[in-house]
Description:
Blueprint: E1 5-10, H1 16-30, E2 34-39, H2 42-50, E3 53-54, E4 59-60, H3 61-65, E5 71-75, E6 80-83, E7 88-93, H4 97-100, E8 106-112, H5 120-132, E9 135-140, H6 147-157, E10 161-166, H7 168-171, H8 176-190, H9 192-203, H10 217-225, E11 240-246, E12 253-261, E13 264-273, H11 278-292, E14 295-300, H12 316-323
Parallel strand pairs: 1-9, 1-10, 2-7, 2-8, 8-9, 11-14
Antiparallel strand pairs: 3-4, 5-6, 6-7, 11-12, 12-13
Amino acid sequence: MAATRAMAVWHRRAGKDEVALHHAAVSCVKRVGNYVHCLPEYAQGRKAIWDAVNPHTGKRRIDEAFPLAMRESTQDAEMRIRCVNSSTWQVIGSDRYDTSLVGTSIAGVVFSEYALANPSAWAYCRPVLEENNGWAAFITTPRGRNHAFEMYKHAGKMPGWFCEHLTAHDTKALTHEQLAESLAEYVALYGEGSGSALWRQEYECSWEGGLLGSFYQSEMSAVRAEGRITEDCIPPPGALVSRAWDLGIGDDTSIWWFCVVGSQVFIVDHLAQSGVGLEWWRDEIEKRHNARGWAHGSDFVPHDAKVKELGTGRTTSRNYAKSGIASHARAAGVDR
């Protein structure tokens, strides 16, 4: 059975869009239907696909994939081609998928740079393709462990999927000299840590590559490379499991559960939630500790937990103690 889903994680300049364009053109001939090429943003589609010129041939990319002889019309404003057999192909953006695809019965879709796309666009397309027995292709270079990473893991274990991960070393599309030059340039521009991480992301398709400006990207890459993130990090019997809080006002409140074992710190759980009160957190903490047999340690809260709230005159930390959260051990910074 031919695959109806494809996940291609290829390095920068590997020709992802070129392959996808020609596949869509062949599909237009083989099966009459509507096909779309979806960029993360609509404006990107015009620059990267519709008006783009292949530097190797000097021709527009769409003219190479969709020769004039196979077209009935070309609508520049809508970036849409109608073929002589009534098939259509169009460039859209995931930022405007709801208006671009309403009422359209598509037979195939390409999500280009899927790691940067709005994943809701796929949620919208999937039922239509399921009904039409259509195909979908996700082509991307990694952008950290986001929805594209989850899709890649899913594709790798599902029947009916084609899944491929290609680095610049696999394709040989670039010489060793070109790769070395680009690495040196990235390091010169962004520094050793950020530059190397960005280069690995772009050319080695590393999911660990951090975003520019992010904190601890090199450290987190080392943590994963050394296998220090596992699924079975269990506190030793009798170890005290403490909690570190990040208090949210306009965003989530987060808790990390951890214990100290010798010279190591084991982070054993994490939870983030918004729109709930301290009683909810108290009950959730109690539930997790009881279910796993964890002994209560201390609660560590930020320094601003000692700031008194307007109206009550109580500090946040006193409210925590009053709610019963810090009843098992005196929390760091908690004044009873």
